[in-house]
Write a structure and sequence with these properties.
Length: 899
């Protein structure tokens, strides 16, 4: 009986076999390597994109039983060209699979190494879509991953691309870390059985508190994070006591599995390196919450740090000799692990409806629980909610596991969920904080009107405001029970000492529905400061302004304020609302924001015409604007034009036309609104322009010479070519740009085929001198109606027709060079755009041989005697032999030869 039959008859065995790939990538072959502990791995990384290092160093599988690609799995390495994937990570993945040990996908999201094409010039939604596609492509290529570093190094935003990643994944949101939560949710949706890890740098000696805050917020908000990773690049000289204290502090705060993810002791002196390994490695390995250790490179000089390797010139260093000996001790072999067998057994997360609640609010506390083994189920869950004077135990027996809880006192509440399955217990911890109920500070601000920045709502940190510390660095006498930094300035109070992601909320009464102008009064003694206003709704934050950039009002002086004016991006609805002010760029003082209501006249709404569209970088696109009601055109006083939400031009005179020259690649959003003489405004109207890289010649073509049809200019459909579909039906793979143009191959010749009327191609051609030219096309025709047109394109993108080509010949797979066809226009010297347009389908085009038509200097027609030995030309200027009969040109005379 074959295997397929067995799987069909035995569903349980089928499921077990389906899990074989994942099991093969766990600790199933530990006895061959240094780690003899069945629950913990001792791993390493690739060496210069290879697994076995060579050079006399033992084979990888004889030492390590886990592998992490050093660079191969990072987004920038895999998708350097958008839509093209280089899976160099297959080498370590397949190696791990073949040797029966576990594999970790490294740095799914990292603000340091990501594709060069992923830039802030792309709209936010397009960036988000690109990141989701990246996750999808990894899932498609690696459907079963045992471990993933989901996010790498987001503490302190110290990686240059973190703000870009943050904005792309939705920003800080209510927790300050919503973008990271989103990354983990995306990963969990695709790999529910993988161990999902947050990984960061210098966790034991630097940024420890910020690291704890980040990971604890992810955990408490219910993100599907299974473990935290401590990179351990900073342990060259840390004392055993300091390391123990740091590890204990982090674990006591997080109570989650830990991985030592990137351990290196970058010491040149052999004995010093060995001593430090002896000091700290057992402390790491024997911690019962440590699930495994990955050493970051084992060959001296082969990683980004110079001296960390355990082998030098093929010989093991003393630290390696000691490590081998230690891994054979009982302490190493029997050290406990939070993941028995090195595998994840349950997805267990506690997700309260908020981690910053108000006293008296009803919270939904959801426990997400699912066993990895599909044949195991959850029997019950006990949820413990604990504060000093509050201890509640809630039994949950049916999914979805949701408990309701009302905090009756203020303070921090500890959460613990214990899930039971087949006699085993699995634990997850979390927390939330209850603050005093929200109330407006004084009378709520009314809009139209002014919000004073210092008059944020009463409540608590995480409920009505968030400050990065509990200390008021400004006027400590103002609202003494709060830690928001209030300063004196601009004749009153203002918010100061601001840091990115801090926020304040205000209860407001909106009197009139509609769009508003905002006038923000702020200051900054540096560059890059800014803030944004949003509505805090039940569905989340909804931006009502773009980022309000605060200019440097004075060098290192925050006492000089300025007013920044703009328009809300959405209409505000009448009624009571909560507005959030979020700091997007640190170090600005915010005094107040005044709102003025705008009267909208929808008959002023605009139509936007963009020509050409699509276009290329540096290629002008003419934008023209008319009202949807033509009778309103005469009432217009101005039109404001925005590119990707940034005001670029205000037109105040007719015609209302603007020449936009794009300088970025991707989808560009053009928006505009009209203002009439009564100051009424239209709604904002938007259109999109697709911008490609600048046109470039595929090959240098000079004429006289031959133009190969398949070598049309590089750019995009609508700019340098147009094809009826995006599929290359020829499938010749001649060009790697994947344009979709149908390039065929007949014998050794490439050409253009599968032609349809209306398709066209353009070529940059250098005409070496001015004058008249002729062409001899090499083509094949399928039918009598097959034809094409050759034209020049002028500076206004208008065609100047040069020649029509058609011929009655019916062998589509056999090329023929046609007789000369003369261009009907005098062509100027220099680079010109030549266009070939298909006018009748069913033609293959191989090449165009373009030649110069020699000037004849014809002065008159004569029937006198002529120089019978003179050089003869036909009337098209083409040289012919001496037997030419009929009309000829000799010595500048047009003669008719009969014999």
């Amino acid at each position: 009986m074959n295997n397929k039959r067995i799987m069909f008859l035995n569903p349980k065995l089928n499921r077990l076999l389906s899990a074989a790939l994942l099991s093969a990538l766990c600790l199933s072959n530990v006895n061959a390597q240094l780690s003899k502990n069945p629950n913990k791995f001792l791993g390493n990384i690739t060496t210069r994109y290879q697994v076995d290092a060579g050079g006399g160093v033992p084979a990888y599988y004889t030492l390590w039983n886990q592998i992490t690609p050093e660079n191969e799995s990072k987004w920038g390495s895999v998708e350097g060209t958008r839509g093209s994937y280089n899976w160099g990570s297959d080498t370590p993945f397949n190696y791990a699979k073949s040797h029966g040990f576990t594999y970790k996908f490294h740095a799914l999201v990292w603000g340091s190494q990501y594709p060069n094409w992923f830039t802030s010039s792309l709209p936010v939604q397009e960036r988000y879509n690109a990141m989701v596609k990246w996750f999808d492509e990894v899932k498609k290529h690696y459907p079963d991953l045992p471990m993933i570093d989901v996010v790498n190094e987001a503490v302190g935003m110290h990686q240059q691309g973190n703000p870009l990643m943050k904005e792309s994944l939705g920003g800080g949101g209510k927790t300050g870390y919503d973008w990271l939560i989103k990354a983990f949710e995306l990963a969990h949706e695709r790999w529910p059985n993988a161990i999902l890890i947050y990984n960061d740098f210098n966790t034991f000696q630097h940024d420890t508190d910020a690291y704890i805050e980040l990971v604890r917020t992810l955990r408490d908000a219910g993100a599907p994070i299974d473990a935290y990773g401590c990179q351990s690049h900073d342990v060259n000289d840390i004392s055993k006591e300091n390391l123990s204290n740091a590890m204990t502090k982090i674990q006591n705060a997080l109570k989650m599995p830990m991985y030592i993810t990137e351990l290196d002791i970058n010491v040149q002196d052999d004995n010093q390196q060995k001593t430090q390994y002896q000091n700290i490695f057992p402390l790491m390995w024997e911690a019962d919450y440590c699930a495994g250790v990955t050493i970051w490179g084992y060959v001296y000089g082969a990683t980004w740090v110079d001296y960390s390797g355990l082998y030098r010139d093929g010989a093991e260093r003393p630290a390696m000799t000691w490590l081998k000996s230690y891994m054979n001790t009982d302490a190493a072999k029997t050290a406990k692990s939070p993941f028995p067998g090195g595998k994840k057994q349950i997805s267990l997360y506690i997700k309260p409806s908020t981690i910053s609640a108000s006293r008296g609010d009803t919270l939904d506390i959801t426990v997400r629980a699912k066993m990895v083994d599909p044949d195991k189920s959850i029997d019950s869950i006990k949820l413990f909610v604990t504060r000093v004077d509050v201890k509640d135990t809630i039994l949950l027996t049916e999914a979805p596991y949701v408990a309701k809880f009302v905090p009756t006192v203020e303070g921090k509440y500890a959460l613990k969920a214990i899930a039971y399955s087949e006699g085993k217990a699995y634990t997850r911890e979390g927390s939330f904080t209850a603050f005093p109920p929200r109330s407006a500070y004084g009378t709520p601000a009314t809009l139209p009107g002014t919000i004073q920045a210092e008059n944020y709502d009463n409540g608590g940190d995480g409920v009505t405001y968030h400050d990065n510390d509990a200390q008021n660095q400004g006027d400590a006498s103002f609202r003494t029970s709060y830690g928001v930094d209030v300063v004196t300035g601009n004749g009153g109070k203002a918010i100061g000492y601001t840091n990115t992601d801090e926020w304040l909320e205000y209860t407001v009464d909106i009197q009139k529905t509609g769009y508003y102008y905002y006038h923000a009064v702020a200051s900054s003694g540096t560059t890059g400061s800014g803030f944004r206003l949003s509505l805090n709704t039940d569905e989340g934050l909804v931006d009502i302004t773009p980022n309000i950039s605060v200019p440097q009002t004075a060098s290192s002086d925050w006492s000089k304020y300025t007013t920044i004016t703009g328009k809300t991006v959405i209409p505000l609805e009448e009624g009571r609302h909560i507005i959030r002010l979020t700091i997007t760029g640190s170090s600005c003082n915010v005094d107040k924001v005044t709102f003025d209501h705008i009267q909208i006249d929808e008959s002023l709404n605009l139509k936007i015409t963009a020509t050409p569209n699509p276009t290329a970088v540096g290629n002008p696109t003419e934008l023209s604007f008319t009202t949807i009601d033509p009778e309103k055109d005469s009432t217009l006083s101005s039109i404001r034009i925005y590119v990707n939400d940034k005001l670029v031009k205000t037109l105040t005179s007719r015609p209302f036309v603007y020449s936009y020259i794009p300088d970025v690649i991707g989808t560009v959003t053009i928006s505009a609104l009209a203002i009439d003489k009564l100051k009424h405004e239209s709604n904002l109207t938007s259109t999109s322009i697709l911008v490609s890289q600048a046109r470039s010649a595929y090959s240098n073509v000079s004429v006289p010479g031959k133009l190969e049809a398949e070598n049309f200019d590089r750019c995009m459909d609508g700019i340098t070519y147009h094809d009826s579909d995006s599929i290359d039906e020829g499938a010749s793979r001649y060009r790697k740009d994947n344009e979709g143009v149908d390039i065929i191959r007949i014998g050794t010749k490439y050409g253009i085929g599968y032609t349809v009327p209306g398709e066209w191609l353009e070529y940059t051609v250098n005409f070496q001198k001015s004058g008249y030219y002729y062409v001899r096309p090499t083509v094949s025709f399928e039918n009598d109606s097959a034809s094409f047109r050759i034209s020049l394109m002028d500076e206004n993108n208008q065609e100047i027709e040069l020649a029509d080509v058609s011929y009655s010949y019916g062998a589509l797979n056999e090329y023929r060079t046609l007789p000369s066809i003369y261009f009907g226009e005098n062509i100027n010297e220099g680079k010109q755009r030549l266009r070939v347009t298909i006018t009748g389908g069913g033609i293959n085009i191989d090449q165009l041989d373009i030649r110069f038509s020699v000037p004849t200097n014809v002065k008159y027609v004569t029937d006198d005697d002529y120089n019978t030995n003179g050089i003869r030309y036909n009337t098209g200027g083409m040289r012919v032999n001496g037997n030419q009969k009929g009309m000829s040109i000799i010595d500048g005379k047009k003669v008719y030869i009969t014999e």
